[in-house]
């Protein structure tokens, strides 16, 4: 088991995919500062960029290879779409589908089970070009929640429904499932989405809960809190991706099975506007296009609206410093999380500005370290 | 029928309730600018303030008296709680319960029915002191959704659950209903929450939809869009309240049955962090405590995060001007709503700073006018 700050990040530019791959970072303690990589090279002709992660959380080291592979496959899927002329929003959805389809990630297939032993997923997607957003929360029986979120986004772009009704941007629960099926997204029986791994994790977590609750009986509150911290086995590994396409449009997406043993109906940051992902093209006021996807404890990421705040911070000149400050001031030291004993979260960030017919792109990852409120690791690349 | 900008606002200070009542504004076209009332009187000894509204939307003029009465009752409930020493968050919840219990408002009892003829409610509450937040989305079978949101907020303040699990801040659908009942909130059969008024509105809307869909068949898209605008009969009247207590703590809450004929599972701004309500006590960085509650088209209010942005704007010296600018720049002219032909929304805002043992309080209402993207009405009072 390794710490929260373990991200699986793989990126590929459309031109220099071979060179990029050697910079890809597998799971592990390799997220030490790499400030020397924070350069803006502004290579002429380089276009398009994909950055994905398989989540902040407690991963099994034995599966490190799998995580790396799925991240590479997700990148490749998105890159293929970009090469075929797709917009960023289509490419980011394609990357997410690959991440959701892996039984090793906590999204789609193989998601954490909730208290009742069911799978309920959250996902959202944002298109930096249209600034449209689509999200689903606590949705069951759908293998690829990101496709429902993407379909909501597309439908909203078509304008009003009959009799002037405004199309929804956020659907939850049974209604979300029904809407998805009525829009051509195939249902998937819950038993097919449950893996041996997720089921055994559920049984293990349930036993832990029972032991914790038994031990707490008759003990004082101090002991209860201490025990709770020791047994913090919630798997936080939301997956996400950020993409810039050949035209400089950005998009971001996020998908999650949510916390292990969550209460049915609990919705985390992955379905929450401004919290799970953010994408905003460059415009008059913002010189940089930015895309952000977050991972970590959903409640912490909701209450700090980390995706939007990181995006706003990335308009500063020094992207690396801006992300460090945003993670420190808007998350780790946020007054909204002052009562929390351990603040857990991470982001992948992409920013892009066009310079003389080329794209100047930076991708950065930042995350809190496990068991610490005052530390931050970032890694970054410039293209 | 009257326009979107019709708010029912009633407020009472704890000391000068008689004087305040004559300034209360019933439904109607009385929301012309009242800049002369935008004074900071800083009365010594005046403490506590309650501001409620029964929603932006299409109200029947025949029920204007009822709306005014329910707003007064809601204010009185909150004032009574404040007089008994309650904190702002308890008082604001009490006001919301009264608003939800009215069969005339689109919240709790008498809520709009969705496409399937069911009631699904959204509600949220935020405590400016602890900065905790609780929300429920698409919840059925609970008469007072705000009490579930408030219970989520209270439970989160108690710290982690067994085995280190993080308590949820946002629950939806069936899971939210089950959580509420397991926490002592009584269930309420759907048929008891449906009123004659909401049922007849549902039947009327359904007929309109059928006619609109029939007329659209065989016609071109232009005609379809025009027809849609003409038949825009969605009832937008979310209810809300903002409160400051004797200690200067603020709280805000919002509750809604959502858009009429919404898709099942649709969640609007009333359950969305930063969008439906916001409350933040004064601190080192913010001289003013602020509380905001929004009403209008949920999708528009989500995509602009209007509650949080209005709260941030209210740190400017001139509260009235700050709200005007926030409504204009962050909502009406927001790039996030550039594709919308009609932007609909309103806010109630309260800000407070302590000056020489007294509270300097301002309450302001702002709303877009019906069928206009570039107009704004505000009313404000200073105490």
Automatic annotation (TrEMBL), chains A, B:
The keyword Hydrolase applies. The record marks 237-238 as: Cleavage. GO terms for cellular component: cytosol. GO terms for molecular function: threonine-type endopeptidase activity. GO terms for biological process: protein maturation; proteolysis. The active site is at residue 238. Transmembrane segments: none annotated. Keywords: Hydrolase, Protease, Zymogen. PANTHER family: L-ASPARAGINASE, THREONINE ASPARTASE 1. Intramolecular proteolysis generates 2 subunits, alpha and beta, which reassemble through a non-covalent association to form the fully active enzyme. Belongs to the Ntn-hydrolase family. This is Threonine aspartase 1. The gene is tasp1.
């Amino acid at each position: 088991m390794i710490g929260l700050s373990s991200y699986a990040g793989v990126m590929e530019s459309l031109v220099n995919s071979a060179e990029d791959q050697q910079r890809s970072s597998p799971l592990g303690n390799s997220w030490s500062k790499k400030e020397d990589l924070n350069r803006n090279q502004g290579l002429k002709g380089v276009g398009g960029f994909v950055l994905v992660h398989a989540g902040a959380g407690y991963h099994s080291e034995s599966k490190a290879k799998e995580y790396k592979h799925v991240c590479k496959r997700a990148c490749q899927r998105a890159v293929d779409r970009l090469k075929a002329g797709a917009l960023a929003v289509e490419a980011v959805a394609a990357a997410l589908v690959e991440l959701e389809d892996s039984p090793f990630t906590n999204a789609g297939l193989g998601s954490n089970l909730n208290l009742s032993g069911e799978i309920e997923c959250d996902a959202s997607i944002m298109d930096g070009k249209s600034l449209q957003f689509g999200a689903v929360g606590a949705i069951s029986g759908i293998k690829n929640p990101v496709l429902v979120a993407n379909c909501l986004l597309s439908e909203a772009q078509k304008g009003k429904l009959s009799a002037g009704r405004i199309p929804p941007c956020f659907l939850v629960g049974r209604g979300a499932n029904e809407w998805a099926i009525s829009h051509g997204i195939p249902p998937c029986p819950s038993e097919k989405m449950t893996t041996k791994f997720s089921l055994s994790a559920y049984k293990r977590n349930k036993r832990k809960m029972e032991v914790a609750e038994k031990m707490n009986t008759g003990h004082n509150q101090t002991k209860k809190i201490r025990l709770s911290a020791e047994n913090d086995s919630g798997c936080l590994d939301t997956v996400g991706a950020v993409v810039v396409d050949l035209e400089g449009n950005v998009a971001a997406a996020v998908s999650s099975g949510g916390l292990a043993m969550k209460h049915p109906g609990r919705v985390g940051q992955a379905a929450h506007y401004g919290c799970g992902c953010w994408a905003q093209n460059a415009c008059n006021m913002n010189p940089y296009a930015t895309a952000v996807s977050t991972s970590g404890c959903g409640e912490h990421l909701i209450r700090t609206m980390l995706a939007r705040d990181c995006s706003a911070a990335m308009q500063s000149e020094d992207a690396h410093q801006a992300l460090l400050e945003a993670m420190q001031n808007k998350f780790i030291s946020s007054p909204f999380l002052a009562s929390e004993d351990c603040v857990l979260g991470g982001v992948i960030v992409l920013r892009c500005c066009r310079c003389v017919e080329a794209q100047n792109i930076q991708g950065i990852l930042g995350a809190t370290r496990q068991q610490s409120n005052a530390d931050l690791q970032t890694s970054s690349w410039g293209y």
